[in-house]
User: What shape does this take?
Amino acid sequence: MKDWRKSLEESCRSVGELKKVLPFTPEEEAALEKIAERYPVCVTPYYLSLIDPADKNDPIRKMSIPDMMEFSEGGTEDTSGEFQNTVLQGVQHKYQQTILILSTNQCAMYCRHCFRKRMVGMSSDEIASGIPQMVEYIKAHPQVNNVLISGGDAFLNSNQVLRQYLEHFTPLEQLDFIRFGTRTPVVMPERVTDDPELIEMLREYGRKKQIVVVTHFNHPRELTPQSREAVRLMREAGCVVRNQTVLLRGINDKPEILGELMNGLMRVGAVPYYIFQCRPAAGVKNQFQVPLREGCRIVDEAKRMMNGQSKSVRYAMSHVTGKIEILGSLDGEKMLFKYHQAKYEKDNARMFAIPVADGQNWLDTQEIPQ
Ligand code: SF4
Assistant: This one.
């Protein structure tokens, strides 16, 4: 059995450590050192073992190893209005029914495409504290019917902290379910597979309140025996496991890769529910974004490989104004969109069609008709 804290200790957190496993030229090394000073690096031994060292374009490598593109211009720090939705420190309330908690700034791995790059592994200013205050807030807002405990990575919290969340939230009648957002099954599966206490806790509280675990698989090669076992154990403990994928340039921007991923996720029971448009985050945008029109083509082609279950996944963007489903291209220059989740009541289920240029990656709020 492998203790996940030991795995974290053994993770590569510097370019010097990475170069023992991956060959870098001296120029690359110097450049990567600069990036690592700005955005933290951490790759678990397990995830590192999935990289093909001979392939500079290996998708697993691209998601975990810094790249000079992270210094390219453009993008913003807070792409979906997280600051303006913050109601208590580390607690966001954007959609009527959902409370989002930034429970930690720690992750097992610092994904190069992370949209919370501004804070993961760095500042803890945005991190929540005071679970009793959260409970009070939820009780004062009866329309809230679920909480999403995120981060960073929710499973980087100790079992003791996770238990506190469950202990406080489980008795709240108004909550239909409690959700954890974690990438540990993908990047450090031993957090789940080798921690029977965690599984027992999920089982115990899951008897009182449905627990949903949201995973983040982006490539079929992440579906290893270890990660599949992590998903199996959580499901066997009574959790509903669902997956969010981000559409990423050079990772899953081929229909056959995306289709294989969605079908593979369905096979293991991590039901795919969002393919997210990569956000225009600083340090991410230029390296990973796929234009909307191209994204639509990729998703539609990938869907040809999928059955009805995996096809229920939605291609969507997490916009300042809500989750906007990207429905498709119309004849001519327009694309069709629909609010799947709206921040403002007036946008609920609203559809709109607007011109979208070939290389356009995102929608400005001003472009959306009111
Ligand atoms: S695990 Fe999630 S929060 Fe952490 S770096 Fe990766 S994408 Fe960001």
User: Anything to note?
Assistant: The mean pLDDT is 95. The domain at 86-320 is CATH 3.20.20.70 (TIM Barrel).
